[in-house]
TrEMBL record:
CC per GO annotation: cytosol
Assigned protein family: Belongs to the cycloisomerase 2 family.
GO molecular function list: 6-phosphogluconolactonase activity
A Pfam family it matches: Lactonase
Name the record gives this protein: 6-phosphogluconolactonase
Lineage: Eukaryota, Metazoa, Spiralia, Gnathifera, Rotifera
Transmembrane segments: none
InterPro entries, per the entry: Cycloisomerase_2, Haem_d1_sf, Lactonase_7-beta_prop, WD40/YVTN_repeat-like_dom_sf
Domain of life: Eukaryota
Length: 376
């Protein structure tokens, strides 16, 4: 029977003894923004999620490491990689303990190739980690040792160039994500500062990246943050941070915008900025996106033939600044990481309608920033 290991990036301030985790539970590893204060996080923490009652139980500090604001699990489920979001950007590698999977052991770290690494992805073969460095707008590919999971010096690198109309956020390039497509011949990188989607060809034999295109966003000032593909690669869904919109693009053979839709209700006029977006992992009939300012999750239906979105729900996240969220692999729960209110909130998902309902299950954490899953 599966033991699901759920990973959330969060900052926690409590220390707990490890608990036995059975097959009815999901472990949450939480990466964080760290600090020196008594109530600040010290690294990556662990929780368990009861898959029946949705109760979250703290499991303590998994490993100490500075500002692990984004985490990623190796396809073999043996290793965890964390982006240490600092001026001297680094990626750290950790081993997942098979006997105590809520504990992580440091392996090594390498330069991320830039300042402020904020996003990681990996190819299915598990041979390379891809990183986007926000502060100076660079992307890189780091080889992974096939024997011990350690990281090697980056083999692929590119410097984004460009700016756009926002005088505060778009004076220069700010790479915010990089993600292989399903075929893994190409990677797309959303750059918030340049208002562009950079397209790369990846060569796994030597780990190099070749930029083949740079596509401007549908509207100046969009500020693209994250993107996702649907499973058949017909569509790319782009979260535009600065405009609080989603742009739906046709993907193959070229990126072409087919819809722009607001993530906010029509009567909301205060500042708000989108963060994470995901498709429902089972049906892909629903898309979810977080609004920071409106402090909500917006739910959309997805026309799987056309890619067109239609709004279904705006639900409060019961906190402030929902930096990230993720959906359990069975599609049953969505857990939100509210960075500014220091809490995690669990919602159930109606599989027929896609609508969210708060379960009443929460956990107090400090500055949660990212959510991921591990199945073992």
């Amino acid at each position: 029977m599966y033991l699901l290991l759920f990973l959330i990036c969060f900052t926690g301030n409590s220390w707990f003894s490890p608990l036995f985790v059975n097959a009815a539970s999901t472990i949450l590893f939480v990466g964080t923004y760290t600090g020196d204060g008594a109530n600040d996080s010290k690294g990556i923490y662990a929780f368990s999620l009861d898959n029946v009652t949705s109760t979250l139980t703290p499991l303590g500090l998994a490993v100490a490491t500075p500002n692990p604001s984004y985490v990623l699990i190796h396809p073999t489920h043996k290793y965890l990689y964390a982006a240490n979001e600092e001026t001297n950007g680094r990626i750290s590698a950790f081993k997942i303990d098979t006997n105590q999977p809520e504990r992580l052991t440091y392996i090594n770290q390498q330069s991320s190739g830039g300042a402020g690494p904020c996003y990681l992805s990996i190819n299915r073969a598990g041979g390379h980690v891809f990183v986007a460095n926000y502060n100076d707008g660079t992307v890189a590919a780091l080889p992974i040792d096939g024997i011990d999971g350690s990281l090697k010096t980056y083999s692929g690198f590119d410097q984004h160039v460009g700016g756009s109309v926002d005088p505060d956020r778009q004076r220069s390039a700010h790479a915010h994500c990089i993600l292989p497509d399903k075929i893994e011949q190409n990677l797309l990188s959303a750059d918030l500062g340049a208002d562009k989607i950079f397209v790369y060809r990846f060569f796994p034999n030597n780990g190099s990246l070749l930029r083949i295109n740079a596509v401007s966003t549908a509207r100046a000032g969009d500020g693209p943050r994250h993107l996702i593909f649907n499973s058949n690669e017909k569509f790319v869904f782009m979260a535009n941070e600065l405009k609080s919109t989603i742009t739906v693009y046709s993907y193959f053979p070229s990126l072409r915008p087919i819809q722009i839709i607001s993530t906010l209700p029509p009567d909301f006029t205060s500042p708000s900025y989108v963060a994470e977006l995901l498709l429902h992992p089972i049906s892909e009939k629903f898309l979810y996106i977080s609004n920071r300012g409106h402090d909500s999750i917006a739910v959309f239906s997805v026309n799987q033939s056309t890619g067109i979105l239609a709004p279904l729900q705006y639900i409060s996240v019961q906190g402030q600044n929902p930096r990230n969220f993720n959906i359990t692999p069975d599609g049953k729960y969505l857990i939100v990481a509210n960075q500014n209110s220091n809490n995690l909130v669990v919602f159930s998902i109606d599989s027929a309608t896609g609508m969210l309902t708060a379960t009443g299950s929460t956990a107090q954490v400090s500055k949660p920033t990212c959510i991921k899953y591990l199945v073992q």
